[in-house]
Amino acid sequence: MIGAGVAWRLGDNAVKTSYGVAVANSVIRFKADLVANKLYAHPASGSGSVEYYRANDIARRVLTDEQYNVSVEYTDLQGRLIRRDVLTGAPLNQTLTTAYVYDSYERLAAVIPPKLYDYLLSNNLTTDFLLFTDAGFTLPNPVFKENGYAYQYDARGRLIRKHVASAGWTYLVYDKQDRLVMSQDEQDRP
Questions:
Q1: Percent of the chain residues past pLDDT 70, beyond the cut
Q2: What b/e readout covers 151-163, taking b as 16+ CB neighbours within 10 angstroms?
Q3: What is the mean pLDDT of residues 88-103?
């Protein structure tokens, strides 16, 4: 797709898209267990190794815009966005990665933005990353509190708790007809 204008067209300024599949051991399979207070990237058996999506299980789409900005999106077999890489230009020339984590019911459970993603990669991915640093779930992990997003659902599939980076946890309460009747953020909690 090319924008209007002869000079724009002659400059090869077009949106370009290419498709492919991710290679083996290139996309980490993150998991979230908000009841158990953790994000992790190892098999549930705790084998001590990082778990990746298998080769050809992840579709890869590369988008290049008119200014040659590149983003790479990875989707799973269900079409859910798993990871987005944004390649920054000069002078930084770095990759900013955002990972999306889903629960066993295919609902979005967590979003791992670039700063938290880099933190997790630089630490041991074979151990659990705890969202709270204490057993009573009262002291939030400062790295997660400032950078992470998480979503928890009840047995009926309603969002009952969400965490927004730098804003903390918000609790949601519904009536019997699934209408939201109350929400309480960290400022409202005692």
A1: 84
A2: bbbeeeeeebebb
A3: 86
Taking the C-alpha atoms of residue 77 and residue 56, their distance in angstroms, rounded to an integer, is 9
> How many Cα neighbours within 13 Å face the side chain of 18?
8
How many Å apart are CA 127 and CA 41, to the nearest integer?
8
Q: What is the pLDDT of residue 123?
A: 83
In a domain, 131, yes or no: yes
Q: Mean of the per-residue pLDDT values for the chain?
A: 85
Query: Is 89 part of any domain?
Result: yes
Q: DSSP readout, 21-59?
A: EPPTTSSB--EEETTTTEEE-S-TT--SS--BPPTTSSE
Structural domain for 100, as ranges: 14-185
Domain count, the chain: 1
Output the six-digit token pair for 174: 């519904």
Q: How far apart are CA 1 and CA 119, in angstroms?
A: 37
For residue 91 the two structure tokens come to 């002078």
In angstroms, rounded to a whole number, what is the distance separating the alpha carbons of residues 48 and 43? 8
pLDDT at 140: 72
Give residues with Cβ within 8 angstroms of 130, minimum separation 6. 37, 38, 141
Copy the structure tokens of residue 46. 């705790």
* Strand order, beta sheet including 168-174: 16-21, 59-64, 70-75, 81-87, 95-102, 108-112, 149-153, 159-164, 168-174, 180-184
Residue 108 lies in a domain: yes
The answer to whether residue 7 sits within a structural domain is no
